[in-house]
Give the backbone structure.
Amino acid sequence: MTATAGRLRRTKLAGEPRAGWLVKLVVFLIVAVWTIPTLGLLVNSFRTSVESSSTGWWTSLFNPFTTEWTLDNYHRVLTSGGLFDALINSLIVTIPSTIIPITIAAFAAYAFAWIDFKHRQGLFLGTVALLAVPLQVALIPLLLMYVNGAHWTIPWLDKTITVFPDLGIVGTTTSVWLTHTAFAMPFAIFLLHNYMSSLPKDIFESARIDGANHFRIFWRLVLPLSVPVLAAFAIFQFLWTWNDYLIAVTMIGANQSAAPSTVVIAAQTGQFGQFEHLLTAGAFLQAAVPLAVFFLLQRFFVRGILAGSVKG
């Protein structure tokens, strides 16, 4: 019996390195497949319009000395294309659209997790249910509300109540980050609530015994312990907002001075696509910022998502 168990154990240990190499190979293949389009984008961004339209990017990669490399695409897209100002507009949209929902959702998630009030579970379920509302069907009603406000007319009282005032923000970056904030709140509250509710109950009881109120507990205990999940949501929200096109083009409209980089890059092709070679340079500049943010915060990413995905 002992000899059989020893053979089984040796067989298991011998199989572990093979399984490890297989996993590494699969991960390497996945990374390679996801990296190839980015590599092609980078190579094409340094090629002339003639080469981009006549040969594949891999030909320049395998024959670098016969390729005519150029920085003109970047120069044109940043100067005459207006991408530099558009990148600033993207930051103006993205930073508030990331900070505001995190701030509000952190307070709301703590309240849903640790403050006992009436209809708490029903309100939380209603908030999470808003995740099912499609973004596309709500954009036009939101745009109309930003233009004219929202008013409720009561016929039998002959009175009109203003539910939402006309803020006059259509065509500005404010309308974009308000919309992003609204649609980010349900997911942010759901993610942060699951994480905060899994924190040890003993630390909250000890803090209450020491005389700490809810705000002090939230500020001194919950926020420092929730850094991983806050960073994970910040990555999600930053990437989504930075790369968004639909909300930006709907809310900004024809005001090009407030257009973010996604809208400006889409307009780089020209009337008949004669400047489509500029898209690669613009797209690579567009992708550089979220890549930098992700690599800076990646150590928090997996920890935050795993911690906020399950309760217990």
Notes: The first helix runs from residue 2 to 45. Residues 76 and 278 are 8 Å apart (CA to CA). The radius of gyration is 26 Å.
